Amino acid sequence: MAIGPVPWLGPLLLVSLWGSSAPASLLRRLGEHIQRFQESSGLGLSLDTGGVALPKEGWLEQPLDPFNASDRRSFLQRYWVNDQHWTSQDGPVFLHLGGEGSLGPGSVMRGHPATLAPVWGALVIGLEHRFYGLSIPAEGLDVAQLHFLSSRHALADVVSARLALSRLFNVSFSSPWLCFGGSYAGSLAAWARLKFPHLIFASVASSAPVRAILDFSEYNNVVSRSLMNTAIGGSLECRAAASAAFAEVERRLRAGRSAQAALRAELGACGSLGRAADQAELLGALQALVGGAVQYDGQAGAPLSVRQLCGLLLGDRGNCSSPAPYRGLRRAVQVVTHSLGQKCLSFSRAETVAQLKVTETQVAGVGDRQWLYQTCTEFGYYVTCEVPGCPFSQLPALPSQLELCEQVFGFSASSIAQAVSQTNSYYGGQTPGATQVLFVNGDIDPWHVLSVTQPLGPSESALLIPNASHCLDMAPERPSDSPSLRLARQNIFQQLQTWLGPAKKSQVRGGV
User: Do the beta carbons of residue 450 and residue 432 sit within 8 Å?
Assistant: First the structure.
């Protein structure tokens, strides 16, 4: 059942995938900050639309348990509509899927669906993911409710939304529906085509980590390589400086209470650093800060690029008050926390657990509890640095990250490992076997190693963009975009031409 559209005035949030301890929280807020910046800067949606109609907000009444017809409980799922380019009822529908955060009107006003819609006269719809943003069931977020939060439930929502919205907007039976998404939502886009090829005509999956993994040590392998990548401002010296900075932090953590107190003040650690678990929270947040510089490198609104981070780590070596890499890391913390409007980089483990146990709906939150639940029950994605050659701290180790699932939800480590294996069995991991799916990745994005980066067949295509970061292909176009990024966007356009046929002659393709 669809509930009529109303005007919108809220933000679009794009968040990161990492599990929900201190590092995850920081990366999620970096993603949110970047999205807000892009919308407010004029690169994305602006409220001063110059006569262009704002997108419409609507609500669908969805079954809480789509797999049990006798369960009559429901929740309201938010969607957005941009129909300004829709030219006929048999035109295509571009469905932008939401992921692990709020989905705002930018989902239908920017990125691939909105950019490509004028070319084919498409209707653009954005569908917020259940249990995120404003699409949270009224009963809250206790474990009994979260039982209805999974990628499979989200895909069932896609199916019922497609049917309901087709009726609401009188979309022709012959109209092709194409899914778009980035990060976890990119995986959903690919899986929607995989599981429902009779309903979803094709999909573009950007930075989609389709392989679930318990111990995601490869994340920091990519971060390490990227810190040495001269094309984005890295160097061997930068990677060595990052390693030295972390070694100095660990040395100071071992040096006693006075040194720990100084670290708290200098690195924004709120809470004692006397316990190993609290130290791991700080070290994990510092890893996320460096990883975030790589993951979001070159994106409008990112507090630090790789080039800027390396400049700080290799800064003034003439000051002997403390080692240069440590001073650079301290300065990087200040830059990031200031940009995010945060006083603290990390909190105590006990406070982290307490926050994740809150079951009341928090509209202002970005879904930390919900996403932790999904990592515990489906995906893993726990970033570690325990393999030889990793330049950061070995803390937080995998057992402490798995323990968070037990502390918050009561899940055992063995159940998490089994859930990850079942996810890959159900979807196929990095060989999903879906046709008419285009996977798009950047090779400095740490998540690309869990995606499809090479074509798997004539109808399962892949683009790997040199020196591009997470979901960069979806970002608003800028004059500073690299030739390889521009070429990738042209290739996406050409792939849609292959699927949908030539663009309308009356439309002029701009930008890509």
Answer: no
Residue 21 pLDDT class (50, 70, 90 cuts)? low
Give the list of residues 6+ apart from residue 257 with CB closer than 8 angstroms, or none. 274
Are 79 and 169 within 8 A, CB to CB?
Answer: no
Residue type, 497: Q
Tokens at residue 431, please?
Answer: 């060989």
Closest CA to 180 of 230, 116, 268: 116
CB-CB neighbours of 68 under 10 Å? 11
Of the candidates 67, 135, 129, which has an alpha carbon nearest to the alpha carbon of residue 99?
A: 129
CA distance to 183, 334, 360, 372, per residue, from 18 (Å): 11, 22, 22, 9
State the pLDDT confidence band at 217, using cuts at 50, 70 and 90.
Answer: very high
Pairing of strands 202-206, 123-127: unpaired
381 sits in which H/E element: strand 380-382
Q: Omega of the bond prior to 396 within 30 degrees of 0, cis?
A: yes
pLDDT digits (tens, 9 = 90+) for 257-300: 999 999 999 999 998 899 999 999 999 999 999 999 999 999 99
Q: How buried is residue 72: exposed, middle or buried, by Cβ count under 10 Å (0-12/13-18/19+)? A: exposed
Which residues form the catalytic set? 183, 445, 470
Q: Quick check: 24 and 18 in contact, CB under 8 A?
A: yes
In degrees, rounded to 5, the angle at the alpha carbon of residue 397 between the alpha carbons of residues 391 and 402 is 145
Q: Write out pLDDT tens, residues 496-507.
A: 999 998 755 433
Which pLDDT band holds residue 158 (cuts at 50, 70, 90)? very high
Q: Which residues pair with 311 in a beta bridge?
A: none
Spatial neighbors of 167 by CB under 8 A, at least 6 apart, are 2
Provide the pLDDT confidence category of residue 330 given band limits of 50, 70 and 90. very high
Phi, psi of 446, rounded to the nearest 5 degrees: -60, -20
Output the CA–CA distances (angstroms, integers) from residue 33 to 180, 337, 399, in the order listed: 22, 11, 30
Determine if residue 74 is left, alpha or beta; phi over 0 gives left, psi from -120 to 50 gives alpha, anything else beta: beta
Is 459 in a helix, a strand, or coil? coil
Q: Please say whether the beta carbons of 443 and 194 come within 8 A.
A: no
3 state DSSP class of 337: helix
